[in-house]
Design goal:
By secondary structure, the protein is of the alpha/beta class. The chain has 3 domains: 5-249 and 388-395, Rossmann fold, CATH 3.40.50.620; 253-381, no CATH class; 411-515, Tyrosyl-Transfer RNA Synthetase, CATH 1.10.240. It has helices at residues 5-8, 41-47, 64-67, 78-85, 104-118, 129-136, 140-156, 173-183, 188-195, 203-217, 236-248, 265-277, 290-299, 302-305, 309-322, 340-349, 368-381, 421-429, 439-445, 453-462, 467-478, 484-508, 510-515, and strands at 50-51, 71-75, 91-96, 122-127, 165-168, 227-231, 252-257, 330-335, 354-356, 360-363, 391-395. Strands 1-2-11-6-3-4-5 form a 7-stranded mixed sheet, with helices on both faces. It has a 4-stranded antiparallel sheet with strand order 7-8-10-9, covered by helices on one side. Helix 5 (104-118) links the parallel strand 3 and strand 4 (122-127). The protein is globular, with a radius of gyration of 27 Å. It starts with a helix and ends in an 11-residue tail after the last helix.
Length: 526
């Protein structure tokens, strides 16, 4: 869940809003390794990441990274979009592992945090110093130096420390306390399956994972609210685990049910289908009962039901054992980890007809959405967290200026936000392009902007909010009007100007950082 991922990875392909890119490599997501995502479409298929283009129209005043498809995917972003639309509470959080200088890849995450803050979300930015120490072996002196540079760039780009919160993991007691609580809901087997941990993995590395889970859920400590985590796709394992833990920490699970006993989701769908299909008036007392549904299922051809034989047997067993119990749709509140006080409070809070059982309550006059809010409110009122599953948005990795992936070990492949502006100019001038072998061929066939690191600089950074300029550069390239020499010269000049301006602003916000409520030096022993 750290913001250094764009420098660790690369993506081949122009940032188009269709979420696709050339290639068909296997997808591997490793938050600390060198994951390779050459086909972003596989993330939709294999990990359930949704295309951001489908939610774009619901986002008020979308950032240019969203409009241009640089932000290509999301998990459950609609609640955040709705909250921003309606001026309701929302939050954004991302972290930065201070293992080197901040670079143009980090700027993607900085911009995403700042944009959400400007749209009204509570904004949080953290220094993942525990992760840097445990997973990367960074010394505390190194971490302090790099952390300061990250924070100065974040402030220079527009983060408002008075309206948001900056913190470092090692100095935040509330985060540490929350990590302890979350740790009780996670185990080694789970971390092993998600992250590939083994007997050689040190405990501090595992502890840093739980701390990151606490970071992700921290914005909801005072109030449950939609929260988005902007990250690269290699950080998705953290997001998925955080969503799971948010659910496990809930007092109650809300679901739909049709009888007093439990049905698996596929079984419930089958019962629901026959509840709608059968007419209660055809039975003795105008009541549809479990045995009636069982009889109808037994008479229906298995091929028509569309379920496996073992699932049908399970449903029939449950229905026949329930016998003459009426089938009635209801909303179920299941006791997941509620205190006795919370369970009693829930019973009192449910209005209308209800049935109380040992481990759940069935309500007949409340819909699913109302039930979710009621369960959350009771939980918060009785000492629980009431977490909402955190959302996430995913940006494409930037291609290295030398081709292939950006790498901190290859200075020419990336541009640090601390680079001398002339060095930035020279790196762009020396960059690989998507141009043809000769100028004549370029004019005839057009350039390959989709494969050009220099065009990515225009799309991700140099065009700023000017979509027309970004499109014009692209169209001129693929149309053969723009030659690589002139294109790189323009990009190099814009990069020099950006670095000059950014570094001037970094100097201007030095006092702002000193006044911010964040530990600039680690309290850890050296």
């Amino acid at each position: 869940m750290t913001g250094d991922d764009p420098l660790e990875e690369s993506a081949q392909g122009e940032p188009l809003p269709d979420g696709g890119a050339a290639g068909a490599d296997d997808v591997a997501l490793d938050p600390w390794g060198s994951s390779s995502v050459s086909d972003y479409r596989k993330l939709f298929e294999e990990f359930g990441i949704e295309e951001f283009d489908e939610v774009l129209e619901e986002v008020p005043n979308p950032h240019y990274l969203m409009r241009r498809g640089v932000i290509f995917g999301h998990r459950d972003y609609r609640p955040v979009a709705r909250a921003l639309q309606n001026d309701e509470p929302a939050a954004v959080l991302s972290g930065f592992m201070p293992t080197g200088d901040p670079h143009i890849g980090h700027k993607l995450v900085f911009d995403e945090i700042i944009w959400h803050q400007q749209q009204g979300a509570d904004a949080y930015a953290l220094i993942a110093d525990l992760e840097a120490n445990s997973a990367r072996g960074m010394s505390w002196d190194e971490i302090d130096e790099h952390a300061r540079n990250y924070l100065l760039s974040l402030l220079a780009l527009g983060f408002d420390p008075e309206a948001g919160e900056l913190y470092r993991q090692s100095a935040h007691r509330e985060v540490q306390d929350l990590a302890f609580d979350l740790g009780a809901e996670a185990n080694f087997s789970e971390l092993q399956a998600i992250y590939g941990f083994d007997g050689e993995t040190d405990v501090s590395h595992m502890q840093s994972v739980v701390t990151q889970m606490a970071d992700i859920l921290y914005p909801q400590l005072e109030e449950p609210k939609p929260t988005v985590i902007p990250v690269g796709p290699d950080q998705d394992p953290h997001v998925r685990l955080a969503r799971d833990l948010a659910e496990r920490m809930r007092f109650f699970k809300v679901s739909e049910a049709y009888a007093s006993f439990e049905l698996e989701p596929v079984e419930r769908d089958l019962v629901a289908e026959f509840y709608e299909r059968l007419d209660p008036a055809e039975f003795d007392d105008d009541t549809l009962r479990c045995v009636h549904v069982a009889e109808a299922l037994e008479e229906a051809p298995l091929s028509e039901l569309g379920v496996a034989a073992d699932i049908l047997r399970s449903v029939l067993t449950k229905l026949n054992e329930a016998g003459m119990e009426p089938i009635r749709p209801r909303t179920r509140f299941s006791d997941r980890r509620a205190t006795e006080k919370a369970f009693d409070a829930l019973i009192d809070a449910i209005e209308g007809e209800k049935r109380v059982y040992e481990n759940h309550v069935d309500a007949f006059e409340i819909d699913r959405d109302e039930a979710e809010e009621l369960a959350r409110q009771v939980e918060v009122d009785t000492g629980g967290y009431g977490f909402r599953p955190p959302s996430s948005i995913y940006h494409r990795f930037m291609t290295g200026l030398t081709g292939g992936k950006m790498s901190s070990s290859i200075p020419a492949s990336h541009i640090s936000l601390l680079d001398d502006p002339e060095d930035g100019y020279n790196k762009v001038k020396s960059a690989t392009t998507g141009g043809r072998e000769t100028a004549e061929e370029q004019r005839q066939k057009g350039g390959k902007a989709d494969e050009c690191p220099v065009y990515e600089l225009y799309a991700y950074l140099l065009s700023g909010d000017d979509d027309e300029f970004a499109k014009r550069v692209y169209d001129e390239c693929v149309g053969g009007e723009r030659l690589c020499g002139d294109c790189k010269e323009q990009a190099a000049q814009l990069m020099r100007e950006f670095l000059e301006d950014h570094q001037e602003k970094r100097d201007e916000v030095e006092e702002l950082l000193e006044a911010a409520e964040i530990e600039l030096e680690s309290p850890r022993r050296r």
